[in-house]
Design goal:
The chain is α+β, with helices and mostly antiparallel strands. The chain is 29% helix and 42% strand. The chain has a four-stranded antiparallel β-sheet with strand order 2-1-3-4, covered by helices on one side. Strand 3 and strand 4 form a beta hairpin.
Length: 66
């Protein structure tokens, strides 16, 4: 699977969109004010799967697998 999009929702409900794993990981490592992370992953058949995480650690781990 590959990253299609990553949305990070901050504590103030501001949403940030990232198109690359590296950018999302960099932001998450530098910021802790996160409510949730939504990851859209796309497979080889162009099917998009959406995953939602409330843990920063779990989000980072899953992003690193893409």
């Amino acid at each position: 699977m590959n990253l299609n999009a990553c949305r990070i929702v901050q504590n103030n409900f501001q949403k940030l969109d990232f198109a690359s794993v590296e950018d999302a990981l960099t932001w998450l490592e530098d910021n802790q004010d996160v409510i949730r992370v939504e990851i859209d992953a796309i497979d080889s058949k162009s099917t998009i799967y959406t995953y939602t995480f409330t843990s920063i650690e779990e989000s980072i781990e899953n992003l690193m697998h893409l």
